[in-house]
Prior knowledge:
By secondary structure, the protein is mainly α. The chain has helices spanning 16-23, 27-36, 54-64, 79-90, 122-125, and strands at 13-14, 43-46, 49-53.
Amino acid sequence: MDSERTPPPGDRFLGWKTVKSLTGFSRTTAWRRQKAGDFPTPRQISPGRVGWLESEVNAWQASRAPRSESELPAFRVSEREEEAKALAASTPQRRGSPNAASRPKPADPIPRAKPKRRAVDEAQRAFEF
């Protein structure tokens, strides 16, 4: 058999559902990354069936995981964010106003008028089924 179709000893083919649960990718994202050369390509197992080698998916995941804190991407805080933080730190926090009792209270909702009762004549009241 062709070495392209036969997995190495101890390796196995993974179906799409397993690959999706391992990576969290949608089919479209996996396809785009395969085209860009950034994700393992599936191998044809039989007509209409493909699978990813478990060793290739695991190696891809290992290449993505940062090994230490120093390998994490550094995010630069913009000057505006720094200014906003400095302003928030220098502004005293107010919990409530001391003259809250002197403020006018919100107006009560408009009372609704009760619906008018229709006049019912005695002939209608006396009607029984």
